[in-house]
Amino acid sequence: MTLELIQGLLLAFALVVILMPPYVRLLQHLGFAKQIREEGPQSHMVKRGTPTMGGLLVIAVVLGIFVMLRPIEGGIIAPLATLALVALLGAADDYLNARTGEGIRARQKLLWQSVVALVVAFQIQSTYEITAIRVPFVGDVTIDPVVYVFFAAFAIVAASNGVNITDGLDGLAGGTLAFAFVSFMIIALLNAPVPQPNIAFLCALIIGALLGFLWFNVHPAQVFMGDSGSLSLGATLAVIALITGQILVLPIIGLIFVLETMSDIVQIGYFKLSGGKRVFRMAPLHHHFELGGWDEEKITLRFWIVGILAGLMGVTLFMASIRALN
Fold first, then answer.
1. Is 24 helix (H, G, I), strand (E, B) or coil?
2. CA–CA separation, 230 and 238 (whole Å)
3. β strands within 204-262, DSSP E
4. Contacts of 223 (CB under 8 A, 6+ apart)
5. What is residue 35's DSSP assignment?
6. Distance CA 200, CA 228 (A)
7. CA of 27: how far to CAs of 14, 164, 224, in Å?
8. pLDDT tens digits, residue range 180-235?
9. Per-residue pLDDT tens over the stretch 126-136
10. pTM
11. How many Cβ atoms from other residues are within 10 Å of residue 18's Cβ?
């Protein structure tokens, strides 16, 4: 199994590295360039015109390889469908941003995300007949199936938007996502009582494709991930956490996404309640450090380090919990 994971990872990496240059030229030809917000850091103005929607190639490579090499069984339908459906939403948002400078309205985007999340959550619950949530060191805690569906849908939407919020610096979202999927690949391989090789293989493909994407996305980025990648990969991360039964470990493994999201919520809430005062120089969190004088590369690398440590903590918690319950 380990050999298959390595082969899949390397194949996904190689295909993205080979296909990305002509894909970027196609994006440039079609005019799919990122429009930078005027209210953002002024240092980002130089990024205006950089091709976006790079995440779409990542998703296409992952789905293409998986369909060719693995059978499509019930347990894998949810993450594959999430990748495809949310990527379409993100691609539409990227397209509108490139054409008009404005993407899909937030409420419309949230509505589409919620619909997809509810359908996927229902599919997960019915496929695995889930009636409990696995709590570290406690075990399975009974939950009503309807409550589980809504809880799972919330987790999917939250993770999707958390990664999207994080995708604001070159290499930031791609790197932290790769570390998170490494963690869940390990969890899927070691999961008890039954390992989940298909989930692990999907994680390996995503890791390889993300590493190939990062080859072109590290500072200064030649292409941006766009909503087509960040929204779909964030949602898929939550789906995999649900399928492995480790959704309560996801906030630890995805600590960067949680911190970025919370900084946005705190900033907006405090701004409204205080009549215009701010907690951070700018939200989300990476912009706070950017305006504090940190170089973009330093922020990205330090967030990567936190992401690696968070992943190690999450996997350690998972393994310790299994041993304690057995």
1. helix
2. 12
3. none
4. 20, 23, 24, 27, 50, 51, 52, 54, 213, 216, 217
5. P
6. 22
7. 20, 20, 11
8. 999 999 999 999 788 899 999 999 999 999 999 999 999 999 999 999 999 999 99
9. 988 898 999 99
10. 0.95
11. 12
